[in-house]
Design goal:
Elements: H1 2-22, H2 26-34, H3 45-69
């Protein structure tokens, strides 16, 4: 049961971070208006947000596997 809560919590954190990364802030929109589009990075914010979510889940998976390999977690 702890595994279910662990993955649910990790998924919620990833979704919250994805939404936060995909939403441009006021500072970012003001900065991009002053900079020519040639100088901006070509990676779109939704792509960065998805990569962030995948990274969070990869770290969660790695952490869980290490925790299990050292015998700290017992599956019930």
């Amino acid at each position: 049961m702890r595994s279910v809560f662990y993955w649910l919590t990790c998924s919620i954190v990833a979704v919250v971070c994805i939404k936060a990364a995909a939403t441009p802030s006021m500072d970012q929109t003001a900065m991009t208006a002053a900079v020519p589009t040639d100088l901006l990075n070509t990676t779109q914010d939704p792509v960065r947000a998805m990569v962030l979510g995948i990274g969070i889940m990869a770290v969660a998976y790695t952490y869980r596997r290490v925790w299990q390999n050292f015998g700290f977690a017992r599956e019930e």
